[in-house]
Amino acid sequence: MQCLGHAIVLVLLCIKQTSASSGSYDATVCNQKTYTSRSGELIYVPNAWNPDGQGFQCMSVRDSPPAFDATWKWPSAADTVHSYPHVKLTAPALPVTLSNISAMHLTGKWSMGAGSTPAPRLSVDTSALADLDVTANVAFDMFADRNADKSVKETMAETEIMIWLGRFGHAQPLGWNENRPRISLTLGNVDFTLYYGKNQRGTNVFSWVAEGNALSFSAEVSPLLQYLWRAGLVSAGSFVGVVAFGSEAFRSVENVTFSATDFDMVLDTGAAPTLPPEELPKSKSGAARAAPDTRAASWSWTWLVVLNMSIIGSVGAVLL
């Protein structure tokens, strides 16, 4: 069954196709509608911001325990994001400057499978997804700006920071094909590599991409953020205003369902700590970068002297 037609019929069809397979939901929303949890702490957004004429995006939500199933179909070109079904994670401290994040612990579990029925917990049917030519990712998504008011508006923020936990088909972060040195950092047992570029709106997008699919993720991610501002790629005074967890949907010729559970954010504010040498970013060859000069007010890696021109040239002027 496809969620097509008049808006009212669309919602009814989505409720029917998801509730029959997964039990009762507290709400089902489609396209650009949103749902706020009863606690007011979570906001669920189907976010079909770039729909094609033959597809749809619906999202069914449970309040307790928090979870959602997002079913979609976008049969057009695989190089375009059509929707980002997600949950916005809230915290009283948001918006907060990057240099005032002492710790940010993010948690999320997910699964993805073909059809309108949610896949088993913590599973991915890669063969079935490939048969449908699925292109998608799974990612935490943050927006930041030197203006606090703009930082809470995704379409106005000057910086986007993504943490990719999975990718399928032709999904590639901005900067994937750029010939530049790669920086990697390990959180727990997950290796991340940094890619960056500008999107069509001119937003600077920084994507930390996991080497494989991390179906169950729980880590303190502030080192990924610290690297960006201590290296001068993002202003230390930029406010992080939005933190979300979901899946960017590019293409599938038939229905696909992304499911998310156990998502959470614990945000601690205060002066950001200095990373110990073992937590410094590494090159793809595995060599640790130079330790920061503790006599200076800010970090200065020796490798930045070498890579300075390639970094600034691709991202634009360093933000101060």
Write the layout of secondary structure elements.
Blueprint: H1 7-22, E1 27-30, E2 35-36, E3 42-45, E4 56-62, E5 67-73, E6 86-89, E7 96-97, E8 101-114, H2 126-131, E9 135-145, H3 148-151, E10 159-168, E11 183-187, E12 190-198, E13 204-210, E14 216-220, H4 222-230, E15 239-246, E16 249-251, E17 256-269, E18 282-283, H5 303-315
Parallel strand pairs: 10-13
Antiparallel strand pairs: 1-4, 2-3, 3-6, 4-5, 5-17, 6-15, 7-15, 8-14, 8-17, 9-10, 9-15, 9-16, 11-12, 11-18, 12-13
Organism: Podospora comata
Protein name: Glycoside Hydrolase Family 12
Family: Belongs to the glycosyl hydrolase 12 (cellulase H) family.
Q: Give me the secondary-structure category.
A: alpha+beta
Tally of strands: 18
Which word captures the global form?
globular
Task: State mean pLDDT (0 to 100 scale).
Answer: 84
| SSE succession | HEEEEEEEEHEHEEEEEHEEEEH
pLDDT < 50 stretches: 1-22, 285-320
The share of residues in extended strands comes to: 35-45%
Keywords: Carbohydrate metabolism, Glycosidase, Hydrolase, Polysaccharide degradation, Signal
InterPro entries: ConA-like_dom_sf, GH11/12, GH12
Protein name: Glycoside Hydrolase Family 12
GO molecular function, one term: hydrolase activity
